[in-house]
Amino acid sequence: MSRHVLSALFLGTFAFTLDLAVARGDIVSRFDAGDEGWQVVSFENLTADNFSIMATYTPTFNATGGNPGGYISTSDQDNGDFTYAAPGKFLGNVSAATGLSYDLIYPVGAINYQPTDVILMGNGQTLLWKSSPDIVPGTSWLSVNVDFVPSTEWHVGTSNGALATAADFGNVLGNLTGLFIRGEYTIGLSETSGLDNVRLAGVSAAVPEPGSLAMMAIAGVAVAAFGRIRRRPPSPHRSRRPE
User: Fold this and answer.
1) What is the pTM of this model?
2) CATH topology classification for 27-201
3) Which of 33, 48, 96, 235 lies 20 to 30 A from 25 at CA?
């Protein structure tokens, strides 16, 4: 194999591993070791767009039973509408975020209540997302995906407010102060829900993952070593071929 081909191979490997390293810019909670600072926030009435907070609770951390691994859960503890509230690592300037995904399970309770599903608050503005069709969680894990783009599912201020625009997303995500995922799907107090694998996608320039860093290091060492081989001067003792 020629030196030019080897060089191209090494450099291609390096570029590929670098691309892998910077492809991830997500903020994630997998709940494999704890609740990660998430809380349960009970709002007065999501159907009436009353976002006054009745109470705040600590969710239950479950070391097993998630999708996979651990997860957090709660039962209904008051007459408000409970949501899962994201911790600080999901908040702040997340203007580059492209969407949200999460897994829900609903082992106890009839599905008969369908208000707002996701609430984003920031810079004095509130964006509300209501899935169409309705989200219907059950006794098995259900994955939910939400795109941060204007659509008929996103409204400003109230569930029947103006449709959210790109400028509205930019304003709220530029200084996100609240991210809430609805956990209540039953009228009354007889329900339990669980949350796992919350992901805020495309938030910022990524921090390389450990595996990608290792691949980058290996590729870098290989490129450097090959460069040294190419620069090695000919041995003074090497015999010349007779002409």
Assistant:
1) 0.77
2) Jelly Rolls (2.60.120)
3) 33
